[in-house]
Specification:
two-stranded antiparallel sheet; 12 strands; 34% strand; globular
């Protein structure tokens, strides 16, 4: 991202403005949301879905942002959200200096998180509960599309391109599960598929 564009983005964050983010070639559709936090490496956004509803928070890497702009239909979006009594909710003093800090901050704020490694696998994301974070790794107790706890998986921090939490799908999984992670993991070979910002579930994956 060009320095001038970064300075303009910092002003949008300061004003908590609605923005549209392009991450070509990662995303086929832009990401919309309220810009809430910025460091020299990461951007924090409260996500606004294409259905014009708030859908949790996301952190993306600045290095993956190809361009951004003020949302072209921000007046409409804000009026629609207001009509639904949905309000932007800032996260004051949310740490964005490094990914370990981001993950530990999410861990105390949300029961489930969605992890994207789009440079390694652009078609899937993994949802689960953060077990621990080390200098180089995330350990995630995964949850299946049937809201069942499955195995623990390790992710290299350097591979993580996007983190989502507090969204409608994560909330639904947590409410259906309504239990703490077991001490002995079950095994599974697949999980929720994440394509173009939407989750597609294989109904046979967890039987």
């Amino acid at each position: 991202m060009m320095p001038r564009s970064l300075k303009e983005l910092a002003r949008a964050v300061q004003r908590r403005q609605l923005v549209r983010i392009e991450r070509a070639p990662i995303d086929t559709v832009p990401l919309d949301g309220f810009a809430l936090g910025l460091s020299d490496r990461y951007l924090l956004v409260q996500h606004v879905e294409q259905t014009v509803q708030l859908n949790g928070y996301m952190v993306v890497r600045l290095e993956d942002i190809s361009s951004w702009q003020h949302h072209p239909f921000r007046d409409f979006v804000q009026q629609a959200l207001g009509g639904r009594r949905e309000e932007m909710q800032p996260l004051d003093k949310f740490p964005l200096e490094d990914l370990g800090q981001v993950l530990n901050a999410v861990k105390v704020r949300a029961p489930l998180v969605a992890i994207h490694t789009e440079k390694v696998d652009s078609h899937r994301c993994w949802i689960g509960k953060i077990a621990s974070v080390t200098e180089h790794s995330l350990f995630l107790r995964k949850i299946s599309a049937m809201a069942q706890w499955i195995e623990m998986e390790r992710f290299r921090l350097r591979d993580i391109t996007r983190i989502d939490w507090g969204g409608l799908y994560e909330q639904a999984l947590w409410e259906v599960n309504a239990s703490a992670p077991p001490s002995v993991p079950r095994t599974s070979t697949s999980g929720p598929i994440h394509i173009n910002g939407k989750v597609s579930i294989d109904p046979h994956a967890f039987y």
